[in-house]
Design brief:
Its cofactor is pyridoxal 5'-phosphate. This protein is of the alpha/beta class. Helices cover 41% and strands 15% of the residues. A hairpin with a 7-residue loop joins strand 9 and strand 10. The structure holds pyridoxal-5'-phosphate (PLP).
Length: 366
Amino acid sequence: MEYEEPKFFEVMGYVGDAEHDVIDMVSGNPDWEPPQALRDGLKEYAEFEPDRFQYPPSDGTPELKAEIAERRGVDPDRIVVTNGTGEANYLGMAAALERDAGDEVLLTDPVYPYYPGKTKILGGDATFVPANRDGSLDVDAYREAIGDETGLVVLNTPNNPTGAVYDHAKVEEIVRLCEDHDAVAVVDEVYDHFDLSGTFESALTIDSEHRVVTSGFSKSLAITGFRVGYAIFPEWLAENAKARHMLVNVATTRPGQYAVLRGLEGADAAYYEAARELVRERVDTFTDALDAAGAEYTRPDGAFYVMARFDGYPGTMANVKRLVDEAGVAGMPGEGFGDAYSDWLRFALVTPRVEEAADRLTEFFA
Ligand SMILES: Cc1ncc(COP(=O)(O)O)c(C=O)c1O
């Protein structure tokens, strides 16, 4: 079997090879500071006795699990601390598919490209359900698509790439459809702290045995390199997920879990609000420039991406490379996210140079 790598790496490699100045709006790496307490935690860790440099409990340190459990209002036994939200999604998807209750996987179009990749390595068959034009969920389309063969539905809110924050009632309807068809909904909430609309509600509040919630600290604590996330399973799926996590990973980073715990304790509401405010300002700056350039775009309610469409300039890999070469701005090709937005380009607003990038785009498309 041939696995498909998401296109992020091809674009990042192209940018890395460029010899001129390129503003990188490709990947979702926050450019702002983590909480100071997280930095302090890392320093403290360096001085610990060697026993703290050895394997932690496989499913997460008890301290971090207890903190997550308290914050999320769940039993710690239902939590697996993972190698980022990426692994949490993998475990959730595997838990759904290994039941032999159907191989079909319902994904949205547009889609975060790692989901189809994971579907393939897990032996699932992806069916894409188009989102509404504004990125919201089309529940009727799910009602039509779901069937006896459906084992898994993957949702992501706030959404990458559309910036949609799903209506909670719609997420609940889809979880209920999963219950009716013996499928499992995996809801990826890695952008839960980047709800710019104030309307986000976690799927955890839906009382269901057919729902897995995943999240992590890559975005909320600005540490994509640490690789700490978690999945919250219903009890009946938790044990197998823990076993899979142990067999694949042994455990995830112990110093990282310690630093995250310290970071969580140190990050007050103002820390998260400051990051959201920064994103809001960048959305305004960038979309003003897109207006000036005559582009169509999505204004995100959450996460930190803007999709833009320039007349006569479809979001192909070739056009992304041309933009790198000729405008000095790197985005992601819309075709990497499925069919619905294949004409579009995605820009990540995680650079202090958003204004400059906007100016470069305006000039290029003038
Ligand atoms: C929707 C979504 N899920 C998961 C991830 C990966 O998160 P993590 O770094 O916690 O593995 C990303 C990263 O961009 C993402 O956009």
